[in-house]
Amino acid sequence: MEPRNQVAGNTNSYHSYSLNEALEGIAGAGFRYVELSAVRGWTEHVPLGASAAELDGIKRKLAELNLTPVSVGGHSDVSTDEGFTLALQALDLCSALGIKVMITAAGREGGEDAFFANMRQLAKSAGARSIELAIEIAGDMAPTGIAALDVISRVDQPNVAINYDTANVEYYGGVKAVDDLPTVVGRLAHVHLKDKLGGKGEWDFPAIGDGHVDFPAVLDILRSGGFTGPLSVEVEFLGEPWPALDEVNRAMKASFDQLTALGVT
C-alpha cells in the first residue's frame, strides 16, 4: 500500500477567530490533522513564547478533538533581528508540541545576505531538533516553486525544503501550479492545498473545488513525484473582513469532502 499523506486543516483559515473555534471547526469538518498558525501580526493562534500552562491547554484541546498537529506556520522575515527571534520562538513551539515541520518565509527587509546567513543558522538550530524548515511560495523572493528552489539551494542545508502553495504560485508568480510544480516536487516538505479565483495579485482563495486550481492534476503530480508529506488545507476567502464562522466551517467541510472524493483523506 502506498503511504498516505496526512491531510490537515490550517488554523489560518480561521484568521479572525480563536484557536478553539478553529480547532473545533477543523475537527468538525472531518480532519484528523492540523497546521497551527503562529504568525505574529497576522494569525497567532499559538502564542509565540507560550507558557507551559498555555501549551498544556492546547495539548488538551487537541487531544479532546482527536487532532494531531503536523506543522507550525511560523512565518517571519528572518533577515531582521525581530523576525529571526520570532522564528526561533516558532521552533520552540514545534519542539514543545512534537511537530517536525515549520513553515517559514523568504524575506529581505534586512538584506539578502542577512536572510541567507540567518536562515542557515535557523536551519542548524532546527536540525538539532530534527525539525524540517519549509520555505513557502510567497513574496518577491519565492513567488514560484522554481524561484523557491533557487532560495533553498542557496541556503544549502539538508533540512530546508519548500512549502508549496497551489494558489500563491498564481497570486505572486502568475503561473499555474500544474506548470510549476513538476520541476520542484522532489524538494517539498509540505504543501498548502489552496484554491484560487481571479488572476495574479487578486486575493480570492475559496473552498477547494470552488476555484480553478486543477487539484486532480496537482495530486497526480505529487503522487508521481513520491511526495508523502503533509497536505494542509488553507482557505483565505477575500481577505479581511473574514466571513462569518458558519461560512468558514462550511468552506472547510466542503474542502474536506472534495479531497475525500479525490481519494486523499
TrEMBL record:
Domain (Xylose isomerase-like TIM barrel) ranges: 26-237
Coiled coil segments of this chain: none
Domain of life: Bacteria
The keyword Isomerase is assigned to this record: yes
Assigned keywords, A-Z: Isomerase
Pfam family, one: AP_endonuc_2
InterPro entries: IolE/XylAMocC-like (IPR050312), Xyl_isomerase-like_sf (IPR036237), Xyl_isomerase-like_TIM-brl (IPR013022)
Keyword Metal-binding: no
An example molecular function term from Gene Ontology annotations: isomerase activity
PANTHER family: HYDROXYPYRUVATE ISOMERASE, INOSOSE DEHYDRATASE
Name of the featured protein: Xylose isomerase-like TIM barrel
Organism, scientific name: Bauldia litoralis
